[in-house]
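Entry 14. Ran structure prediction on the chain below.
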Amino acid sequence: MKKTKRTLSLRLQMMLIILLCWLLPVLMVLSVMGWYVSAGVGERAERSLENQFELNLQMCGDRVNSAVEASRLASYDPTIRSAWNTYQKNGGYAELYRDTRAFLNRQYASDSRFLFSVLWFAKDPEHMSITSLTGISGTMYTKVSRYWSDDFPYAQELAEGLDTAVGFLERDGRVYLVRNLMDSHYETIGVLVLALNLPYYFEELTTLNWASAVELQLENTQAIALKGECPDQTDGVLRVSHQGDGYQLSARAAIDYDILLAPYSSYKYLLMGMALLLLPMLLLTFRFLKSKVSEPIQALMEGDAQIEQGKLGHQMSYQANSREFQYLTESFNRMSGQLQYQFNRLYQEELALRDAHIKALQAHINPHFLNNTLEIINWEARMNGDVKVSKMIESLSTVLDAALDRKKKPEVRLAEEMTYVNAYLYIIDQRFGKRLAVSTDLPEELMDYKVPRLILQPVIENAVEHGIGPAGQGTVALRGYRRGDRLILEIENGGGLSREDETRIRRLLSPDYDSSKETAGNIGIANVNQRLRILYGEDCGLSIFRGEGDQVIARLKIAICED
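Output, structure tokens:
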């Protein structure tokens, strides 16, 4: 016996290599990173950026406050209120329109803080409205048109709940300041809407060079992306807020750490140098894992694949260089050899059992002694000129020849099987005549498939016996088709199934049915089912079930063996 080379255990080898290649470098990296974190460079920088961010937001808030203050002019200035009172007394919308438009042009048309201003009267918002543009261009008219088509209903809804407060509306990046105009009785005259020029108000936020993304929220509006898309995460995102004149202004910014840590880039090169020093150690570790773990496991997997492909008894020639995998390899070879031995023994036993079982089943339909007797009777019928009897005897002889199986072929082409079926049907036709109608639907492409000899005759015989109803007539249909790698043959009759019939069929087709304890008249379909299961496996066989109405279907499932 060859002496096995003594090797260190895999666990000990891995512990040694880890201590040698990783412990010291990891301690160095942790020391450097600990110093960096303890110095608080990143934390101090973030505090400084937060203070700057808060100051810039406060400057933006002051500008928004100026917009709120500008919106109050429409309430404090008596122009609109007086024009409205005159309209209430005397009518005449033209004068109200002229005075209101003049006020809007005077107050907001030249104000770069607003893109345009709109005032509609509560009495008839859609027809009694005035718009004032800050500059005249096709782009501005497009913005006003979008306001009336997309944003007006939301502004109207917001105004209904404001009372005397100011509100903000955000729609796909467009922001409006909304305020109600009241008369002396605090009844709503109309609603003033100012479209804010966002770059004017929030320029200080968009120019933050350390921020990769900035988002702003006015009161309860949707967040406005001023620069990029701000992530939802908490780390690396600054959040500040500012309380304005009757509103809350909030903002958040994502920190671009590449810019923030630029002054400390020298540490990056330090870490890169350490990584380069660790590279040879990493390669050594990979080589170790490959030779000690990966290659032995791959060899075991390849051996397992050989067995899955049917190569029982496969022996691995790989020489493992660790004690654990040496043991696994030797165990694999031993188990593979035992598996081949057990399989060969069971296979030979199964072949012997199957041949004995098939011969025992076929013995029920192999009456050898009848053949010579039928030939004598057939000769006598011909001598007496009785053609009908002669043809019946010839048909019966055909069926018996098939049962005798002189050529010792357990399987025949479906076309040959149909010659036996047709011979049997000829005899049945002479017995029942027009009382029994038989139809066959077998595609030509099925005729070359192999089926067990005399597999259809017992089932058709059973269908004929049960297909003749109380009225003394009936039908039997034979059809076939292919489903995947299975040949399906169905025999259908109209005899119906009683509860007693179903109970008997379940017993006869049971996998553990013993035909030796059954009378000869009941073993036909049991014989067929057992032959199919032995030859093609447990998923093949015979099943009998109800069809539509009183129809009964016997289905044979046969595995297709392609030549």
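Residues 86 and 92 are 9 Å apart (CA to CA). Will compare against last week's run tomorrow.
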